[in-house]
Each structure stands twice: as structure tokens, then as C-alpha cells.
């Protein structure tokens, strides 16, 4: 982000004071203020200043909304290619609303096509003085994009809606069959849906609007489970066993779902080990019977479904509520957790028997962590969102290198400095959304992140994320 004076002339009058007749001449324009790099958590905005997005920081940046705010969403696996690097891009998602009235809620199945952009230079080119007023709305719609054949015009959003009873606390798509989705409602119901007909319509449609975008269809879920004692937020599909699901509620109960021929067998006897609300659940990426949970009680637990209904391991993870966890699919010994106090930690599960398994702990965010997710393409990288309206991307493999910094300063002619107050592992900071709720990496488009907030969705691809082809799974 850069900062500049919203109205330099007005700010000057405010600071200097005014006498009768002063400051009214149209010929006495104040000199333009040069844009500066703003360091989140370090710098403060002065009176009359505002933050503006620097488009050179992104390979792609787009914003859109689907109507009511969405607390949760998921990216759907598609058949457009396992590793896609060329613009324009197309993505498919499913999201659940938090509408003003319970009867107005829906699940949206949507397609965003013609996502344009271009690969930016890692070392920014020197700007003219006249280039300091940057417009975030046109960050990736430059004429250069059209010349390079990377997509022209705005992205196209196509949306189909299915009525949902009450607000959607969380929604997740089955990795193996993305048309099958599970939703956690604020009514206390967990429901499983088949959205194959809606996805088929979206896939077969062209860039024109399709039927169903403005109307909400009524569709019965495949399964409606009312065995939880309260509403909840925790739910996860197994990446190893198609159809295997766990769901956790605000009364500390976790239920296991096992797929059968045409439905699910749901164990009415819950897993119990937490003393307060279960906030998030994550299946192991390598062990089909193992999952992790986190809770308002400040603990993270590891469970093995073959060993009964108590946790195999329970860890005091944070001094406040543990809101979210993420299990690293490329380095399965790594589990990250985010807390209500703004901190997040990374644990090496191989060190559990030795006591302290924390290998990294960050106190950068000052408000609750709302979402955390490891990159599916780089084992050391993860994305974090917080109630402080920041989405941050971290690379745990980075360390401060004075020689590299000196070389970078010389290339940029001292225009960019690495602030000593920020952790060297902090790779990128994205702002501009209000009340960030959830963030996900696109598993088939390296470097693409999608986030949801109270004011809609952002699709972003930071220019400083160089992602190689995904390696084979590593069990550490």
C-alpha cells in the first residue's frame, strides 16, 4: 500500500490556519506530495492522508460481490487444468450468505471468468511524479494487459442461488466430488447438498448471464442432520476418503459422518474432549483416520477415530480462543493455528512428545485471526486473515539478508526499504476489505488467493509470489 494526500490543498489550509482572503487563489496550488510505501503496524495515517493500492504489487486484483455478505465460501476443483498460469483465468466457488432476514439466505454457486492480469516486475520501475495517484479499481485493466493478450474487459460473474434455511456459518465442498457440499447453518442444522445441475449449467454457459442468477431455487438437501446440540462452525471433508466428514458445534461435540451407498451414516455418539465450543476441524492430509480440532478453550486436539471418542493428544495452543487451524498438505508434520488475540503459531507435530512443538509464533496482527490456510503449492507459505482488515501472506523460509536488501535498494534507487519493525517472513499485505472472514488458495492456479469480507470478495495474485510446480506430498 502507498499513502498520499487525499486533498493536499485542503490539508495545508487546515495545518497552517487561514486568514480572510488567504488560500482562495486558484493560482496557489500546493505542491504534489510524493507517494510513500506505508508500513502496516508501523506507520500511522496523518490527517488528510489516505491509503491507495499500488497496482504494481499485484499480477491480478479484482473485487466482486454476490449480494448479501458471505461468512464462508469454498473454491471448487474444476476440469480446466491442474496447473494454470496463463491469463485470463476462470474460477468456480460456492458461498453461503448472512442475510438480514433468515428467509433471505441462500447458497450461491458461481463462476468468475475472464479474470485478467499480467506478470509484474519484482523490482518496480521508477515512477514519474505524476504517477502517484493510483486507482485500485483499474489495477489490472491496463492497456498493456490487452496488448499482451492476457484478457480484456471486466471479469464476468455468473451466479445461481439455492435457498438455505438460516444463515450459513461455514460451507465446504468435497475435494473428490466438488458438486457435493456441506453447510453449517445458524439454525443448528448440518446439511449436505448436490449442486451438480447448477455446476453443469455454469460450465456449459458462455459469458452471457444465465438463468438462475437473480432467482433463488428451492432444492432439498441430500441429508439434514439435527443431532448437534447447538449451531457450529467446524466442518471438514477428508482429502483421503471420499465422503468422510466431521462436524463440530458450539457445545463442544464432534460428530463423524461415514458415507454409505446413497447417504451417510452419522455417529450419534460424539467425540468429546474440549470444554468449550469447537471452532474448526481439519483432517490429516496423510492419515485417513486422524483429524485435528481447535476450541474456545485455547486447545488444539488430535483425534484418531480408531481409538475411541477422546483425543489422542491435547495441546494448550494459545492463551485465548483458538479460532482456526490448517494442516499442511505438503509437509504433514506442520499444523498452524490462529487465535482471538491476533497471534498465530506453527507446530511441528513430530516434537509433541518433547513438549514444546512450536517452531514459529507471530504477534503481527492485533485483532482476532479469522482464517488461516497453507499454500497448496509451497510448503513454507500460508495466508492469514484478521479482523484488523488485513490479509497477510507469510513465507516461513525467509530470513533477513542484508546483502540482498542492499542490492534491492540499489536497483530501486532507495525508493523501497525493508522496515526493521516487520518480520522478514511477512511476504505480502493486502488491504481494502472490511471485516475479513475467510481466505483460500486456488489449488489449480498457483499464486491466486480469494477472500471474503463484509463488503464482498477479492481475487488477488501478489506479484512477489513465485510459485513452482507442486512437489509430491512430504510427510516430513
TrEMBL record:
Q: Name one GO biological process term.
A: ribosome biogenesis
Keyword Hydrolase belongs to the record: no
Domain Histone-binding protein RBBP4-like N-terminal residue range list: 49-115
**Gene3D superfamilies recorded:** YVTN repeat-like/Quinoprotein amine dehydrogenase
Residue ranges of region Disordered? 1-35, 121-159
Keyword field: Repeat, WD repeat
Any single GO CC term annotated in Swiss-Prot or TrEMBL for this entry: nucleolus
PROSITE patterns the UniProt entry points to: WD_REPEATS_2, WD_REPEATS_REGION
InterPro entries found in the cross-reference section = Glutamate-rich_WD_repeat, Histone-bd_RBBP4-like_N, WD40/YVTN_repeat-like_dom_sf, WD40_repeat_dom_sf, WD40_rpt
Q: Where is the composition biased (Acidic residues)?
A: 131-149
- Protein name as it appears in the record: Histone-binding protein RBBP4-like N-terminal domain-containing protein
Amino acid at each position: 500500500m502507498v499513502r498520499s494526500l487525499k486533498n493536499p490543498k485542503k490539508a495545508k489550509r487546515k495545518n497552517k490556519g487561514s486568514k480572510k482572503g488567504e488560500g482562495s487563489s486558484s493560482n496557489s496550488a500546493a505542491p504534489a506530495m510524493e507517494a510513500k510505501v506505508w508500513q502496516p503496524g508501523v506507520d500511522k495515517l496523518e490527517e488528510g492522508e489516505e491509503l491507495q493500492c499500488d497496482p504494481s504489487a499485484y499480477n491480478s486484483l479484482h473485487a466482486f460481490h454476490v449480494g448479501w455478505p458471505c461468512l464462508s465460501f469454498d473454491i471448487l476443483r474444476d476440469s480446466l487444468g491442474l496447473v494454470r498460469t496463463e491469463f485470463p483465468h476462470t474460477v468456480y466457488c460456492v458461498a453461503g450468505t448472512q442475510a438480514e432476514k433468515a428467509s433471505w439466505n441462500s447458497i450461491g454457486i458461481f463462476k468468475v471468468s475472464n479474470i485478467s492480469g499480467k506478470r509484474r516486475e519484482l523490482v518496480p520501475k521508477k515512477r514519474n511524479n505524476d504517477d502517484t495517484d493510483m486507482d485500485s479499481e483499474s489495477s489490472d485493466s491496463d492497456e498493456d494487459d490487452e496488448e499482451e493478450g492476457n484478457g480484456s474487459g471486466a471479469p464476468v460473474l455468473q451466479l445461481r442461488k439455492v435457498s438455505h434455511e438460516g444463515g450459513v456459518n461455514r460451507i465446504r465442498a468435497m475435494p473428490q466430488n466438488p458438486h457435493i457440499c456441506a453447510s453449517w447453518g445458524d439454525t443448528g442444522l448440518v446439511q449436505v447438498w448436490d449442486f451438480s445441475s447448477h455446476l453443469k449449467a455454469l460450465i456449459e454457459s458462455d459469458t452471457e448471464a444465465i438463468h438462475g442468477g437473480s432467482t433463488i431455487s428451492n432444492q432439498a438437501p441430500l441429508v439434514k442432520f439435527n443431532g448437534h446440540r447447538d449451531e457450529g462452525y467446524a466442518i471438514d471433508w477428508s482429502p483421503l476418503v471420499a465422503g468422510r466428514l466431521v462436524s463440530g458445534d458450539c457445545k463442544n461435540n464432534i460428530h463423524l459422518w461415514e458415507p454409505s451407498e446413497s447417504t451417510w451414516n452419522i455417529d450419534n455418539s460424539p467425540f468429546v474432549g474440549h470444554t468449550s465450543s469447537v471452532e474448526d476441524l481439519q483432517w490429516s492430509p496423510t492419515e485417513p483416520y486422524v483429524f485435528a480440532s481447535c476450541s474456545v478453550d485455547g486447545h488444539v486436539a488430535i483425534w484418531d477415530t480408531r481409538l475411541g471418542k477422546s483425543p489422542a493428544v491435547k495441546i494448550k495452543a494459545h492463551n485465548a480462543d483458538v479460532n482456526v487451524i490448517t494442516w499442511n498438505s505438503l509437509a504433514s508434520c506442520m499444523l498452524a493455528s490462529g487465535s482471538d488475540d491476533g497471534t498465530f503459531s506453527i507446530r511441528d507435530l513430530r516434537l509433541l512428545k518433547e513438549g514444546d512443538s512450536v517452531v514459529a509464533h507471530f504477534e503481527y496482527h492485533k485483532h482476532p485471526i479469522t482464517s488461516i490456510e497453507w499454500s497448496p503449492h509451497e510448503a513454507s507459505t500460508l495466508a492469514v486473515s484478521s479482523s484488523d482488515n488485513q490479509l497477510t501472506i507469510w513465507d516461513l523460509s525467509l530470513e533477513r539478508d542484508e546483502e540482498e536488501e542492499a542490492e534491492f535498494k540499489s536497483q530501486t534507487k532507495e525508493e523501497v526499504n525493508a522496515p526493521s519493525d516487520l518480520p522478514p517472513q511477512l511476504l505480502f499485505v493486502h488491504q481494502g476489505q472490511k471485516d475479513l472472514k475467510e481466505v483460500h488458495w486456488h489449488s489449480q492456479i498457483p499464486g491466486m488467493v480469494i477472500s471474503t469480507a463484509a463488503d464482498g470478495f477479492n481475487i488477488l495474485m501478489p506479484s512477489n509470489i513465485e510459485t513452482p510446480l507442486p512437489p509430491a506430498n512430504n510427510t516430513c
